[in-house]
Input
Amino acid sequence: MSSESTSEPIEILLIEDNPADARLTREGLKEARIVNSLHVARNGEEAIKFLHRRDGYAHKPRPDLILLDLNLPGMDGRTVLETIKDDRNLRSIPVVVLTSSEAETDILKSYEACANCYVAKPIEFGSFLGVVGSIEQFWFSVVKLPQYDGTSRGSA
Output
């Protein structure tokens, strides 16, 4: 189901410390033409507070999708991923690792930590926008996802 058929925007949490990559991600999501609300956490600690709705995040929505960079200051993306997937209240949220690392060890460790998919960020502007749009189209037009309130979003 695309968000065009529902009144609620798709809630996306982007965990990204690079403002340029955050801006490109926002542009890619805009071009995908799926109504979304993008929230940005600039580090792992901020992301965990957002997800647990603590310290100023009490009224933030539960994300439908998390886009996670691995290379974050402080608590890195690997630790954030493990924290999310170890929490029974958060583990059903799909986590897409969207990072510049193409290292086989990062890919393997991300999947071992239960990442839902791993995408290397393209360097070229147009390719980056296309990849981000493809991620959103796949997760909200193709995949069937549960929601924490028992309803589902997506189609088979």
Observations:
- The chain has five helices and seven strands.
- The chain has one domain: 8-143.
- Residues 8-143 form a domain with the Rossmann fold fold (CATH 3.40.50.2300).
- The helical segments are 19-31, 44-52, 77-86, 104-112, 125-142.
